[in-house]
Amino acid sequence: MASLAKTKHRIASIKGTEKITKAMELVATVKTKRFLTAYERGKTYAQEYIFLMSQLFAYDKETSSHYAKMNEGDLPILYLVISSNMGLCGSYNGNLLKFVDATVAKEDYVAPIGNKAIHRFERDPIYEGRVIDKYEYINLETDMDLLHDMCMKLKNDFNSKKYKAIRIIYTRYINSITFLPTIFQFLPVQVPHDKWKHADYAPPLFEEKPRDLIHRLLPSYLTSILYEVLVESELSEQASRRTAMDNANDNADELLDKLTIEYNKARQNAITQQITEVAGGANASN
Question: Which domains does the chain have, with CATH numbers?
Answer without folding.
Answer: 1-30+65-194+211-274 (3.40.1380.10)
